[in-house]
Amino acid sequence: MFDGLFINKFIFALGLGYQEAAIDFNIAATPGMDPSPNILSELIYDPLISTNICIDAGYMALVGKNAAVGGSLSIASSLRSKGDAFDHDFDGDNRTQRFSLSKSSLEDSEFTQSSLEIFLKSRWFNRTGHYYSFAVGFQNTEYDLVMTDGYQLEPIQEPIPGLNSSYSPNFKSTYISYTTEHKLGAGFLSINATNLWTRLNATADWNLREEFVHPRSFIHSGHGDGYQFSLTYSYPISKHFDLYSTATYRKVKIENGYDQIFLTDGQSFVTTLNDVNEDVKSLRVGLTAHF
Predict the structure, then answer these.
(1) Domain that holds residue 106
(2) CATH number of the CATH domain containing 234
(3) Which of 43, 79, 234, 255 has the most C-beta neighbours closer than 10 Å?
(4) Does residue 2 sit within a domain?
(5) What is the model's pTM?
(6) Is residue 135 assigned to a domain?
(7) Is residue 85 part of a domain?
(8) Buried b (16+ CB within 10 A) or exposed e, 188-225
(9) Nearest-5° Cα angle at 84, 160 to 37
(10) Does 4 have pLDDT greater than 80?
(11) 167 in a structural domain
């Protein structure tokens, strides 16, 4: 965000992004160490494609000849989404003896992400045009995955009328990151690596299951970790404005979780949430103003 800058600066950036995400979760039939089947049900949301608007703001201040500190806030939100969801059910262990498969559309789904961080920046060996920084921060990623236009594929092929179910995972991550910046041609190339420690909370509404409570049919909770890599090139077009492009890859894996189902008769059942996976590739272009 502060690529190539080493001076007291306020930054504001506006961008447009393209994102492809893949999210999946699977649960066991029963809790415990030896459930059977070990994978009873698996939901795969792949791909979830969205066009996002991206806003960034921050401030950096010099605290010495070769040191600066700062903070930034970033927000991204989907403008339009599309994609497919696949629901698998199994009678045997390790995804064997599948007895049900359905497909649905994710066209009405939404994505939002916000992050807040503070950082320390310095020069490489006191050299102008070469910088590195360390940051700590918090990232909040939310999806509202809405499944409509359902179609049963197995054991028979037929439409699923009235499908309007949703799964809404929320990934809350604390992170540390390292960035290195180098002058390349007329602009600056920035490479970032981030470690994520993540907590998942999710709520689902399975609208066609009459035995489930609505709108909270079941919940997921778990924790895990992940990583993120990004590559940014910024190009100055005037004293106060730069064009930038950023490519990002993020992967998060949640384990050690539970799935709790709520029934209309007042009963509630808990089973093992084996894992939840988020795999995201994105590309962003935009304009940065610095004053």
Answers:
(1) 9-290
(2) 2.40.128.90
(3) 234
(4) no
(5) 0.94
(6) yes
(7) yes
(8) bbbebebebebebebbbbbbeeeebbeeebbbbebebe
(9) 75
(10) no
(11) yes
